[in-house]
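Aim 2 progress update. The chain analyzed this quarter is reproduced below.
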Amino acid sequence: MSQTLVAYKKIWATVDLIPKGKVASYGQIADLAGLPGRARLVGKSLGHVPKGRKVAWHKVLRSSGQLAFPKGSEQALLQTGLLQEDDVVVLNNRVKLSEFQWHPDLGELLFGLKY
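Predicted structure tokens:
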């Protein structure tokens, strides 16, 4: 298995742990997946999820809380709708991280990650 695929699987497994009503940043997911400084790899991996594999890509945002897609774009509207279904408030293409950012405890990570 390639190193890239191994990294992608770690990222997807980490994103899977984000609970309903919470979001995380690309950099936060990279750090939690053991890939510090690889925020762009997180974004890339979310664009390469295999068919049949569900990953809650919509819960991953920029470090400012902003959606990665341009305001009003089809992707931004889809992401906004999915976040709202998760009870996350999106205003002006942004989520208030002080209210909705995921702060996992050690137990969540130790018992939740399968890699």
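The helical segments are 3-16, 26-32, 39-46, 74-85, 97-100, 106-112. The chain has a mean pLDDT of 95. These observations will guide the mutagenesis experiments scheduled for the next reporting period.
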